[in-house]
Amino acid sequence: MKKIFFTIFLIMTINTTYAEIKIGFVRINEILKQAPQTAISNKKLEKEFKSKTDKLKKSIVTLQTKAKSLEKNGLTMDDATRESKKRELQLAQIDIQRSERELKEDINLRRREELNTLQGKVNLAIDKFAQKEKYDLILYQGVAYTSDAVDITEEVVKVLGSVK
């Protein structure tokens, strides 16, 4: 029984030793930075959330103006009015913080959706490149070291430009 396993192991080792295996590696973070779709996606997100971002910025400026006004005129106000204005500012600040948090969550959610779409396109580009160049194996996650000789990131970015 041991001889059979040893023979199978030996045959597998000999076959892989003589066969040329073409291996490539891509740096996925570089692809995501350089991909033309990334810039398009960022502009799309910026346009989508511009009105909400501008509204939030305007609210922050208004709050800051009111705070400065209270600081400047607070000494001349009676205690009840000053406390009322402070409470008003605190509530406005809480509301702005909540709006800012919701906006960030919405942007992050949409960014993840765009990233998932782009990841699918990256995988298609890698498949297309691998088939065209006859690669047996292309890696892009969980690799401790690769030499520049197997780094095909730039080539995949070029192919990604043609993937719709």
What is the CATH topology? Protein Binding, DinI Protein, Chain A
Please give the count of helices: 5
What is the H/E string?
A: HEHHHEH
| Class by alpha and beta content | mainly alpha
The general outline is: rod-shaped
Low-confidence stretches: 4-8
> What's the rounded overall pLDDT mean?
86
Number of domains: 1
Overall radius of gyration: 29 Å
Strand content: under 5%
CATH homologous superfamily annotation: Skp domain
CA-to-CA gap between the ends? 54 Å
Q: Which terms would index this structure?
A:
164 residues, 5 helices, Protein Binding, DinI Protein, Chain A, single chain, mainly alpha
Protein model, in words:
This protein has a single domain, classed as Protein Binding, DinI Protein, Chain A (2-Layer Sandwich), CATH 3.30.910.20. It has five helices and two strands; from the N terminus they run H-E-H-H-H-E-H. It has helices at residues 2-18, 28-34, 36-73, 79-133, 153-160; strands at residues 23-25, 137-139. Strands 1-2 form a two-stranded parallel ribbon. Helix 4 (79-133) packs across helix 5 (153-160). The longest helix has 55 residues, at 79-133. It is rod-shaped, with a radius of gyration of 29 Å.
Write a brief caption for the model:
With 164 residues, the chain is mainly α. 76% of the residues lie in helices and 4% in strands. It has one domain (22-160): Protein Binding, DinI Protein, Chain A (2-Layer Sandwich), CATH 3.30.910.20.
List the helices and strands and how they pair.
Blueprint: H1 2-18, E1 23-25, H2 28-34, H3 36-73, H4 79-133, E2 137-139, H5 153-160
Helix pairs in contact: 2-5, 3-4, 4-5
